[in-house]
DNA sequence: CCCCTGGTTACGGTTTGCCGTAATAAAAAT
DNA sequence: ATTTTTATTACGGCAAACCGTAACCAGGGG
């Protein structure tokens, strides 16, 4: 069961609503913090007193308002907390973040649930809490869909190299020189053009810009 | 006095907390909506019944979740509402938005108060409400500061339109037609080229791809 | 040895984007 | 009202990207 929860969220609006949701869900004890350092201190203290938290609900990005902090964002907080209390459950509550990033967090078992701040986020949070209390993770389907869409195409190392170079400001006709320099096998301008053409075709993009944005969002850069 | 308030906010978390804040402030009557159309309908009805709202609290960006809407964002909502009830007070409650945009809204008297979803947003909302009830506007000082020290490039609506179109797969020579179609003022290919050139220059990008990725990461698309 | 096949490279033509300059329109200032 | 300033548009040359075709070069089988 989830009896003791700590909320780390800098926005008062969100923090308040999460608290209210905890009340609705009859969570026995919940505390909240507006700063990562504060949340960490509370978790550390509870741990020392032998009354550890069951669940950490945290935002990912925290605004820097001038007060100096050791821990600056949600990911740092999660890692710091897991270092002293590996068993704690972690639920991420985030505004807009890249699907891949979230996905990676799941893959590395750094988080157990993810709720996006959006329409129906309260419902989502309740569903997530429900899943967690049953020992399940909460990985929203929409996220899987987004990832699936991004993962349809298999990018080769060659593809990624080209795209990375383009993103660094190389123009296509400068790339062959670079490839020869680094002994990468297809190195002709034709090959590069053909490859890009093929990728665009398969993914249904009309220009390289879309491709670059896509790769950026997919975390390939 | 502010006795009757309508809240338009798609995020449940935020909506809920605003409601709670209204309770704390002893506002006599408040209603809420998760969609612009719904908010507009409520305002229209109240107006017809001779019991109009005193204040509209609205987010700027509303997520499109598939349900078809006439009014798609906060600005459209504000303009639609002001068209039928010019006297209504308007308070914007927004996550991250360009300071200049907000500033312009104030300058054109389209809004009376602005609260950013951030640290202490509940306090800010209360302060804003207090100011409004005294017949004052609420223009947070932080906004003025942000405009002053924003040495990063300021994208105009025009810029964003172009970039959005490019990202949708338009090629540059197709854009003038679109702009004329939508009565956007500079519409020539030259203007587009010149603008893009200028932006790249100021931000130090070597090609459009980098610009697109930048804008994507900055959440401007 | 030749032929076939898959992949790479070379080349030419066309389109698109890039950038400077000049003409024109609109706005501001006098 | 006319000049000055500013913004927008039109045009042209050039570079880059796009795209098709054909030549080239492995290796594998006949």
Write up what this structure looks like.
Two copies of one chain form a homodimer. Chain A has ten helices and five strands; from the N terminus they run βαβαβαβαβαααααα. Chain A is an alpha/beta fold. In chain A, α2 runs parallel beside α3 and α4 (99-107) crosses α6. Chain A has two domains: 4-140, Rossmann fold (3-Layer(aba) Sandwich), CATH 3.40.50; 152-217. Chain A has a five-stranded parallel sheet with strand order 2-1-3-4-5, with helices on both faces. At the A-B interface, α1, α5 and α10 of A face α1, α5 and α10 of B. Chain A binds a DNA duplex (30 and 30 nucleotides) through residues 171-173, 185-191, 193-194, 196-197, 208.
List the helices and strands and how they pair.
The structure is a homodimer of 221-residue chains.
Chain A: E1 4-8, H1 12-24, E2 29-33, H2 36-48, E3 55-58, H3 74-84, E4 89-94, H4 99-107, E5 113-116, H5 121-133, H6 141-151, H7 157-167, H8 175-181, H9 189-203, H10 208-217
Parallel strand pairs in A: 1-2, 1-3, 3-4, 4-5
Chain A binds a DNA duplex (30 and 30 nucleotides) through helix 9.
Key words describing this protein structure:
homodimer, 221 residues, alpha/beta, Rossmann fold, 2 domains, five-stranded parallel beta sheet, 5 strands, elongated, DNA-binding
């Amino acid at each position: 069961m989830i009896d003791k929860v700590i909320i780390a969220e800098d926005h008062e609006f969100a923090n308040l609503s999460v608290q209210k949701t905890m009340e609705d869900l009859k969570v026995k004890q919940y505390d909240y913090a507006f700063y990562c350092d504060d949340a960490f201190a509370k978790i550390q203290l509870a741990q020392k007193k032998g009354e550890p938290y069951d669940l950490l609900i945290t935002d990912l990005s925290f605004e820097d308002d001038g007060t100096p902090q050791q821990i600056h964002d949600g990911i740092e907080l999660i890692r710091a907390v897991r270092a002293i209390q590996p068993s704690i459950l972690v639920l991420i509550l985030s505004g807009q973040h890249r699907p891949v990033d979230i996905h990676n967090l799941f893959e590395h078992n750094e988080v157990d649930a993810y709720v996006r701040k959006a329409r129906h986020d309260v419902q989502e949070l309740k569903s997530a809490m429900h899943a967690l209390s049953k020992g399940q993770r909460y990985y929203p389907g929409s996220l899987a869909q987004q990832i699936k869409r991004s993962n349809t195409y298999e990018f080769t190392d060659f593809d990624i190299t080209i795209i990375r170079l383009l993103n660094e400001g190389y123009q296509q006709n400068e790339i062959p020189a670079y490839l020869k320099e680094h002994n990468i096998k297809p190195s002709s301008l034709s090959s590069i053009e053909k490859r890009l053409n093929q990728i665009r075709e398969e993914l249904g993009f009309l220009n390289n810009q879309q491709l670059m944005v896509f790769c950026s969002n997919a975390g390939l850069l």
